[in-house]
Design a protein that fits this description.
The complex is a heterodimer of chains A (243) and B (173). Chain A is mainly α. Chain A is built from 13 helices and no strands. Chain A has helices at residues 2-14, 21-31, 42-52, 62-69, 72-100, 106-129, 134-145, 152-164, 168-178, 184-195, 201-214, 217-223, 234-242. The chains are: A mainly alpha (243), B mainly alpha (173). The interface between A and B is large, with 40 and 50 residues.
Chain lengths: 243, 173
């Protein structure tokens, strides 16, 4: 037995054991009947055995299960299909409208097409911002970058995401796009409300920079009293003092 | 592939994917999140995966890419953003108990490159063959064997050094 295990150990350290021999080694060192000479390897295999028995902590599996139970994927697939179909209909109707109705000015047709494209991008952004995967939400933010302006519905969705999105990168990425919305007061109030419960210094800084960009000097002085940051770091404090 | 069969197949992989994520990111919470994210990505792609010959290798590739991406972002944060912030706060803390067995294993493997750690775990813990690991890593059989051998010997030597230090401390104490 000792000889066999020694041969297996040599093979193991050379990386040539197969998937049947490796569990055999772990079992041997877990068995408690270990030769004295081989005792030095015991701890190593006990560590590997403990790792092998590791399972995902209870309660951490909820996200995927909830996702499945809600049948979100079916709604998502249906909704996505509907959105794509609507977008295609919109583009085709734009094309036919251009062909059947006399066009006095070619730039008006181009503008119409631009508007249609803008609507497609808005719908896609809204759809993606509501997806469970952070990567998809980030893609949604990329679509907002393609828009000339952010409408009220999109601006409100962005503010909701800024306050509630679990992913820090998503929250960070969307802040500059809020500045594309024309209602300055809505964005100003939304940003002030949000900064007070953000914990990440990166997001606090980004919001402060957005406010500096958005407001003039007098307005900035007025909002100073409304900002009460949770544990701001040195850089955030410095920026806050500078406004 | 019917829905339930795919679901069962996915959930059967959950713990394996978690251990592999853990071997890369060394953070239990983050590894759990990455596993959930990977499961959702796989679920979203289930129609495409219907005809994939080696679904498990595909799943491991997804978790590997997600975790390595996190490490890259963490590295970028530490190199480019952290120096500008005064407090030395890490994006992702290493939140395992250093005194438990898993913590000790992580300590011993800390200096090993993340991808090599994954290869080691795939071979030694999860029992994948070199052919299967090659599908995920795109490395040749012999290179994989050398990596596994190096990590295994490194682990043995580190443990030896640690035990000698402990013994010397006990003697001195």
């Amino acid at each position: 037995m000792k000889k066999e295990i020694k041969i297996l150990l040599d093979k193991y350290y050379e990386g040539t054991t197969n998937h049947q021999e490796e569990p055999e080694l772990i079992d041997y060192f877990f068995s408690g009947r270990i030769e004295e000479e081989l005792f030095m390897h015991r701890e190593e295999f006990l560590l590997l055995g403990s790792f092998k028995n590791l399972t995902i902590p209870e309660g951490r599996t909820n996200r995927f299960n909830t996702y499945l139970n809600r049948n979100h994927f079916q709604k998502y697939a249906g909704k996505k299909f509907g959105q794509i179909a609507a977008s295609i209909i919109l583009i085709i109707s734009g094309y036919f409208a251009g062909n059947f109705f006399p066009i006095h000015d070619s730039s008006s047709a181009l503008n119409e097409l631009k508007e249609n494209l803008e609507t497609v991008h808005e719908n896609t952004a809204l759809l993606l911002l509501n997806q469970p995967l952070a990567n998809e939400r980030l893609q949604g933010i990329e679509y907002i970058g393609k828009l000339e302006a952010v409408n009220a519905e999109l601006a409100k969705t962005l503010l909701v995401s800024l306050n509630n999105d679990s992913n820090e990168n998503v929250r960070l990425a969307l802040i500059p796009y809020l500045l594309k919305h024309e209602d300055k007061d809505l964005i100003k109030n939304g940003l002030i409300k949000s900064i007070n419960h953000q914990e990440s210094p990166l997001i606090q800084l980004e919001i402060l920079n957005a406010l500096i960009y958005l407001l003039d000097r007098n307005e900035l002085k007025n909002i100073h009293a409304e900002i009460h940051l949770k544990s701001p770091n040195e850089l955030v404090n410095k920026t806050l003092k500078s406004i | 592939m019917v829905k339930d069969k795919f679901q069962i197949q996915l959930l059967g992989l959950e713990d394996k994917l978690y251990r592999m994520a853990l071997s890369i990111v060394f953070d239990k919470d983050l590894a759990s999140d990455m596993t959930q994210e990977a499961l959702m990505i796989l679920w979203e792609r289930r129609r495409k995966l219907r005809n994939t010959a080696n679904f498990e290798a595909y799943a491991v590739t997804v978790i590997k890419n997600l975790c390595l991406d996190v490490l890259r972002r963490e590295k970028f944060f530490e190199e480019n953003i952290l120096p500008q912030l005064s407090e030395s706060k890490k994006f992702y803390g290493v939140n395992y108990a250093k005194k438990d067995e898993i913590g000790l294993l992580f300590n011993l493997l800390e200096k090993v490159n993340a991808e090599h750690r994954l290869i080691f775990v795939m071979k030694t813990i999860e029992g994948y063959s070199y052919e299967e690991i090659s599908m995920v890593t795109k490395l040749k059989h012999d290179n994989l064997r050398k990596i596994v051998s190096r990590v295994r010997q490194g682990l043995r030597n580190s443990l030896k050094i640690l035990n000698n230090e402990k013994r010397n401390k006990d003697i001195a104490g």
